[in-house]
Automatic annotation (TrEMBL):
It comes from Halorubrum ruber. Keywords: Ribonucleoprotein, Ribosomal protein, RNA-binding, rRNA-binding. It holds the Pfam family Ribosomal_S17. This is Small ribosomal subunit protein uS17. InterPro entries: NA-bd_OB-fold, Ribosomal_uS17, Ribosomal_uS17_arc/euk, Ribosomal_uS17_archaeal, Ribosomal_uS17_CS.
Amino acid sequence: MAIGIDVPTPPEPDNPEDYDYEKCPFYGQLSVRGQTREGTVVSTDMAKTVIVEREYDVFVPKYDRYMKRRSRIPAHVPGVLDSLEVGDEVKIAETRPLSKTKSHVVVEILGDQ
């Protein structure tokens, strides 16, 4: 619980000289605040970034039914959690803007799908 969320702390980085401490919530100065969300990794094409997709239901009063919606959130991957693949379930937390599109960081790998 070093970052304010009940998640396990990953092991320290292998090479501390080359590690990006500025964008790491565990061993750096990056604070997490706001919402935490869970989703599935759908893309790992970018460097140090994954696209997390979450699906949810929205009630439509006109038809008295639910419809499915999905949102895709770009999230930063700290160097200590580099082993992400497409299909992994992850927990992401909101943080300060890290780039034009990234305002979330991966804080836990929940499992494979």
